[in-house]
Write a structure and sequence with these properties.
The chain has helices at about 10-20, 25-35, 40-55, 70-80, 95-105. The protein is mostly helical and about 110 residues long. It is elongated and about 60 Å long.
């Protein structure tokens, strides 16, 4: 049975409490008092603590290199000069990266006229 998902804030809280008290049980009790819900199990708390200790970052995997200020400014300028620019026919970057930047960073939406 898969348990409920915890938010990033809840995971951070329980890991910080474990780091302060060095007790998974105490971290669980504090979590239950604060969030009024079932806390993660002791093994999950220890695994998350170990992960944060080793990696010291939240995201794993290859970072996206297309999200630079230069490429975002280039796309924004191209879209201002031609708002009907095709994502498929652009000569700036791949179609999927172009769509991701226009949606997330510039707040343009595909097929919007």
């Amino acid at each position: 049975m898969v348990g409920e998902q915890f938010t990033a804030r809840q995971r951070a809280f329980v890991v910080l409490r474990y780091a302060e008290t060095h007790s998974a049980v105490q971290a669980q009790q504090d979590f239950r008092r604060r969030y009024h819900r079932r806390p993660p199990c002791e093994q999950t708390i220890r695994n998350n603590f170990k992960k944060y200790q080793e990696k010291c970052k939240g995201r794993s995997g290859r970072p996206r290199t297309v999200h630079t200020l230069h490429t975002i400014a280039t796309i924004r300028q191209a879209l201002q000069s031609n708002p009907r620019m095709s994502a498929r026919r652009n000569n700036i970057m791949s179609k999927s990266s172009f769509n991701r930047v226009t949606r997330l960073d510039i707040s343009f939406h595909p097929y919007k006229i």
